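Title: Comparing notes on inverse folding

I've been comparing how different people in this forum approach sequence design from structure. To keep things fair, I'm posting one structure and asking everyone to reply with a full sequence. Here's the target:
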């Protein structure tokens, strides 16, 4: 399966064109491994003090993807969810890999997960692919050439009607349950929306936004791995991205680490969503356990 078949895009740059083929093959094989693995016993363990989980499927998927990348681009840097930062000779190219976005869902038997692969050039995402293993669906984008999925081009236009938006929420793993900013944001967004979705699979939220299924997506202290593949697809489908002050979000990522606050929305919903996020600064949540 060639990436040109998956994406239906014309990619002029030779490196990105080859990278798209490599990423498409890697993500398809990793998706098959996850689908097959879910039919058997699952090994789950806690990987750090935050309580974040890892399964044998995360590790298997990551090995498959990294093997594909290393064979084709041995000099490229890699930032992978499980194995971390892998430096190399060429510091201008960096792959960002989330081998199983939704591990906590899988661990409790909820079949909602995705795989994300992005390629950055000098910190700017130029290629993004997101795959939903259980449904065997793939979405992708190349910078400057649009975004596409199983049903064709993505436009990022809401297909719903009504005054109350449907929103998605993401908070980074370092954010504690008692974080006052997170509490205020969640309460504000939920009280002003038709529904506030928390999927534990941020990449799928990016896809829902890019397809027009939801109106906006807010991330608080989101990790770098959660951002580039989905955000590039969203940008290329016409979604606007800003920080919490409403300033357009920079394309360039500060690799290999960092956290990002973002507002992502369809153009007609951005102003209202930005107002909600700013208004959360005036909200104090009391009476909950600390």
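Reply #1:
Here's my take.
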């Amino acid at each position: 399966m060639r990436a040109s078949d998956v994406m239906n895009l014309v990619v002029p740059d030779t490196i990105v064109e080859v990278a798209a083929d490599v990423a498409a093959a890697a993500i398809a094989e990793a998706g098959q491994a996850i689908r097959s693995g879910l039919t058997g016993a699952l090994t789950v363990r806690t990987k750090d003090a935050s309580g974040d989980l890892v399964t044998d499927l995360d590790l298997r998927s990551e090995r498959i993807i990294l093997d594909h990348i290393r064979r084709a681009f041995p000099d490229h840097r890699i930032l992978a969810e499980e194995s971390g930062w892998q430096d190399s000779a060429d510091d201008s190219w960096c792959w960002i890999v989330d081998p199983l976005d939704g591990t906590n869902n899988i661990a409790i038997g909820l079949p909602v997960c995705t795989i994300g692969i992005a390629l950055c050039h000098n910190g700017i995402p130029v290629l993004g692919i997101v795959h939903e293993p259980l449904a065997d669906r793939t979405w992708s984008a190349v910078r400057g050439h649009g975004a596409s999925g199983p049903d064709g081009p993505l436009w990022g236009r809401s297909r719903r009607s009504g005054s109350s938006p449907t929103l998605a929420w993401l908070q980074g793993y370092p954010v504690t349950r008692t974080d006052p900013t997170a509490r205020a944001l969640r309460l504000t967004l939920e009280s002003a929306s038709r529904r506030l979705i928390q999927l534990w699979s941020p990449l799928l939220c990016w896809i829902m936004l890019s397809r027009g299924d939801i109106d906006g997506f807010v991330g608080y202290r989101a990790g770098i791995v959660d951002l580039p593949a989905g955000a590039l697809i969203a940008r290329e489908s016409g979604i606007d991205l800003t920080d919490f002050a409403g300033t357009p979000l920079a394309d360039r990522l500060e690799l290999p680490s960092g956290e990002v606050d973002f507002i992502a929305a369809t153009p007609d919903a951005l102003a209202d969503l930005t107002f909600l996020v700013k208004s959360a600064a005036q909200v104090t949540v009391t009476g909950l356990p600390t």
